[in-house]
Amino acid sequence: MYQILKLFLFRFNPEKAHHITFWLLKLPFASKITGLFYKKEHPALQKTVFGLQFKNPVGLAAGLDKNATAFNQFGDIGFGFIEIGTLTPKAQPGNDKPRLFRSIKDEAIINRMGFNNDGVSAAALRLQKRQNPSVLIGGNIGKNKVTPNEEAVNDYIICFNELFDLVDYFVVNVSSPNTPNLRQLQEKEPLTALLNSIQTLNKSKKRPKPVLLKIAPDLTNSQLDDIIDIVKSTQIAGVIATNTTISRDGLTFDKTEIEKIGAGGLSGKPLTKRSTEVITYLKQHSGNAFPVIGVGGIHSAADALEKLEAGADLIQLYTGFIYEGPALIKEINEAIIAKSSQKN
Asked: Which three-class secondary structure state does DSSP give residue 55?
């Protein structure tokens, strides 16, 4: 069913197709009816990670529901958790259009959206209309483009406070390639300071929330070692591996076409191998010291199982969901159930 709809959606530019999809998803009963075909519930899918009970381990990655406008509908169609954002304190338009590109042959997407969002307060109002508490919500937070890195912690704290009572966990995003100088915050000293500030605030709350860090796939092994040290020293709950890559490896685009598209983060199948490598490295070199959410190039149940076998505690979909549709959620969950029954 979705593959037919995709033929229609892919006739439009990617950003227009995104808005059409959200419009369709929010039609009366559309998500509920879709869920009848794709939603899967089974005890084998339930998982407790960083103190939270997930009804299934397949989540929607940040970036698709930036403004928390369709999180209820995404829960209806079968996701076990939804990550909204990236949100910033002030609304911002993001980068100039066009800023979203498909490579259909490679089942990939290049984006340079630039944290376009309505601002954290607008999202907070929408989150108050949450319908299903069993579908967990993560709040992915960042800094405004105009905020210098030296003052970035203030932006993250504003977003943290605004969302604290409305989300189940937080994700600190310092790994998007589309906000100037943001990735400099991944360096050991500024990142440790940022996370310590957030954790100090978090621990002052009556019931602290899990805080995760989203990292880039372009980090070296030495930088991943730093990430491991930082996670342990700041006592955050875990890592999301990975964000998009600035690499263009794996694309079959003509080099001239790639240069024409320009800057942006690459996601989809070309990222499958590298994101799994990062998961494996983090798990092995940390001694499985913290949970990892695996994301990057999951386009099939086999891709998902590979991430889980590499050590991912949960997984998230983005580009694979755009290319495969909600059937992918069901296929992954069915594969997990089947694998569980084989063990038993």
From this structure: coil
| Predicted model pTM | 0.97
DSSP state string for 157-226 = HHHHHHHTTT-SEEEEE---TTSTTGGGGGSHHHHHHHHHHHHHHHHHSSSPPPEEEEE-TT--HHHHHH
Q: How far apart are CA 128 and CA 126, in angstroms?
A: 5
**Whether residue 103 lies in the annotated active site:** no
**Contact by Cβ (8 Å): 17, 308:** no
Query: Choosing from 176, 267, 275, 286, which is the catalytic residue?
Result: 176
Q: What residues form DSSP beta bridges with 315?
A: 58, 294
Q: Hunting for tokens 């590979």 — which residue is that?
A: 306
**Angle made by CA atoms 36, 40, 45, in degrees to the nearest 5:** 165
Retrieve residue 154's tokens: 């203030």
- Count how many Cα atoms sit within 13 Å of the Cα of residue 84 in the half-sphere of its side chain: 31
Residue type, 119: G
Q: Domain residues of the chain, as ranges?
A: 30-343
In which element (H, E) is residue 263 found? Answer: none
Backbone angles phi, psi at 250, to 5 degrees: 95, -10
Contact predicate 169/140, CB 8 Å: no
* Residues in CB range of 99: below 8 A, 6 or more apart: 15, 111, 112, 113, 114, 264
Q: Kindly state the tokens that stand for 182.
A: 């943001």
CATH topology of domain 30-343: TIM Barrel (3.20.20)
Has residue 344 got a pLDDT over 80?
no
Residue 160 has φ and ψ, to the nearest 5°, of -60, -50
The helix, strand and coil proportions of the chain, stated in percent and rounded to the nearest 5, come to: 45, 15, 35
Query: Which residue is associated with the tokens 């009556």?
Result: 206
Per-residue pLDDT tens digits for 181-234: 999 999 999 999 999 999 999 999 999 999 999 999 999 999 999 999 999 999
d(CA 65, CA 63): 6
